[in-house]
Task: structure prediction
Amino acid sequence: MDLSSPTLWWLLAGALVAAELATGTFYLLMLALGSAAGALAAHAGLGGTAQVTSGALVAMGGTALWHFKRARKPRSAPAESNRDVNLDIGQTVVVRAWSEDGTAQVQYRGAAWSAAFEGAGTPAPGPHAIVAVRGNQLVLAPAPGH
Result:
C-alpha cells in the first residue's frame, strides 16, 4: 500500500485530534491544525520542506495568537474568593464578638463557623460580609454601608 503525502498529513492530523480529545491538551490541537496545513500544502503540490514549514508556521501562529488572546483576558479571582465558584461570597453574617487573635465564631446556614477578619482597622462586632472561604473558615470584612 502506497500512501500519498497528503494522506499521511491527514492521518497525523486525525491522530493528534484524537490525542487532544483524550488528554485535553490545547497544544495538540494546534499541532493538528499545523498538520492540516501541511496536508493542504501537499495537495497544492508543494515539496516536503514547504509542507513542514507551512505546518510549523500554522501551529506556532495558532499557539501564539491563543496565548496573546488569553493574556489580554482578565484573570478570575482565586476559587476561595470567587463568587462564581462559591456562592457564600458576598453573604452577610453577624459577629457578636471578636477574639484577641482576630477570629470569631459566627452562625451561618444553621451551623457554627470559625471566622477570621480581613480588612482595614480592628475588627468590631456587627454585620460582616464573607469575602472568602478557606477550608472551613469564613474570611470576613466589614459589610458595605456599616
Notes: Residues 79-142 form a domain with the OB fold (Dihydrolipoamide Acetyltransferase, E2P) fold (CATH 2.40.50.140). Residues 48-72 form the longest helix (25 residues). Strands lie at 92-95, 103-108, 111-117, 126-134, 137-142.
